[in-house]
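Good day; I would like, with your permission, to put a structural problem before you. I would ask you to consider whether the tokens describe a fold that such a sequence might reasonably adopt. The full record is reproduced below for your convenience:
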Amino acid sequence: MEQQDIIVRVANHLDTHYALRITDEMEASAKARGTGIAKRSPEYIAKKMLEGKAVIALMNSGQWVGFCYIEEWSHGKFVANSGLIVSPEFRKSGVAKLIKKKVFDLSREKYPSAKIFGLTTGLAVMKINSDLGYEPVTYSELTDDEEFWAGCKSCVNYDILMSKGRKNCMCTAMLFDPADKAEPKETAADFKENSSLYERFSRLKQSKLLRWFNKKNEQSKDSKAKSIFKIFST
């Protein structure tokens, strides 16, 4: 399979029949990773296609390859390129980078002054984002739109997110700010120089968060058990 055999373009009304395939693959991929993305219905994905706020990748034969869509938050001040998914047989082919570039350009076209952000647990996606001009940031620099954070409810780590007051979780936050003077070549070079550090920090953060959350759960169970014991022993 060659990249030239794959078409990456803005999705339209003729692509809505792929919506169920896309959402099924999103769910399967999230389960395999042990993390999650906002769960979307086929109807929601089809709506994004009809609005011209989605990018789809297809083989010349019409076989579905990959997908990503745009969501706006805080009245258009923030934009997220969400739901990036690639069909299993096309992963590690470079198509994810092509999709991310296309949806990023579409976002800049539709929302030229918006900050574009994303949450990811994958170093490969971090690299792609860095090549586009994204930089790692704290969660406080992202949108405070309640609807966006409600989308994390379908993730297995949602309890950790809420326990940390939405200030930290397993994902790394990344942001492209059009007002920032950093060039994509600079953010890409920074990521290349520090990629091993980012990977080590990400693993350490995830390990510490899991230990902290598990310990908190055990303390909560112990406290509940003591309360029950007290009730039945008086």
